[in-house]
């Protein structure tokens, strides 16, 4: 690994963080401007060990095929599919980008990071069955969701998800939707593939085991202060543009830039846990990602789901998530992360969010206090015959939800992702969480639009080579939508 050093030269791009976001942006920029110099800095010893690590997330290719929180029911009973359409559209952009990388040889084998896994929604109770039926009716004719099946037939559901139906007591109304075209994505493997390809390019350097601890403007550029975690040596590098894609640590680094756009922004960390199956026979009996409905008071990212995983060619199974609380902003961070991020600019919004989110606070306290038996009870809603000896508890990543100023309430807690960029476009940070990695490509395209508007017209032909739908909307063009879905399914080998 290279070590950071003080230099009089100015890099074109510095990527802070070694996860899927930085790797995606770096890949775009190297394709568009191969002559630009670029460096990536990661805190840990290996690439993608934080949020992008395959066991630190569920690996769902989030396309709103099964995630019920993306299709809320209005007071009038109508199902709002607008967010589901937007999320699916974003994932189609990611699929196009990944297909381009396979076509050009940057990724040799798509099965190294993506696998076809059906996506399902599963509910019980008469009201929920009625909701799922209406959700299916609202989605089934949309070009992005064509092929979605709905059933209340126990025999059909037993074919789709035998593990979920075995041992289930008769008499409770049940329903499920089934989408053949779902995916499981190993975002850790994908990140490492992207970084490995970047390392083959001229003008790119990777610096692992290096922690960025300060970012300051100096004479029209940015001075990045770096500490070698092994030796303790500090150094600095100058750059014209810096992207902060450091997961939960992005907020403290963004605050250090001093840009006005960062004022008033706070963060609320939530940790995640999963139950991972250790019994190969049980793992073999399930082949789907099955999402249910979140409990009352639960945040959107806590929707329960039973997920088939494919990691390094080996099939796995997990259930969760179970929420927890830690003041760390990274899994391998410091307990002082949250206190150190609070300042006079964001204290008001943070206190307002604490005041207005009692249900969330109650939910988190209940989650933290859960025993293994409590977790098993939640699992048995999906696997009625689940036994404690077949499952182990694993700790996933830390997510830092965004808190921003709000004129009406003083502060608001957000559960999505957001790009914060300086007015001159020389620094940008990605804050937030879900759907996150699945939409890395469209999010990074938005970074390009925000930070490099003077280049977009010149870059557009190349961007359309990488993402054929760039500048267009698949939801409004059924022919293009069908073409994109067919091509990416073929190139990414998503049809068995």
Automatic annotation (TrEMBL):
Signal peptide: none annotated. Pfam families: Mqo (PF06039). It comes from the Bacteria. It catalyses: (S)-malate + a quinone = a quinol + oxaloacetate. Pathway: Carbohydrate metabolism; tricarboxylic acid cycle; oxaloacetate from (S)-malate (quinone route): step 1/1. Its EC number is 1.1.5.4. GO terms for biological process: tricarboxylic acid cycle. Its cofactor is FAD. The keyword Kinase does not apply. Keywords: FAD, Flavoprotein, Oxidoreductase, Tricarboxylic acid cycle. One of its GO terms (molecular function) is (S)-2-hydroxyglutarate dehydrogenase activity. Belongs to the MQO family. NCBIfam families: mal_quin_oxido (TIGR01320), PRK05257.1-1 (NF003603), PRK05257.1-4 (NF003605), PRK05257.2-1 (NF003606), PRK05257.2-4 (NF003608), PRK05257.3-1 (NF003610), PRK05257.3-2 (NF003611), PRK05257.3-3 (NF003612). This is Probable malate:quinone oxidoreductase. It comes from Ameyamaea chiangmaiensis. The lineage of its organism: Bacteria, Pseudomonadati, Pseudomonadota, Alphaproteobacteria, Acetobacterales.
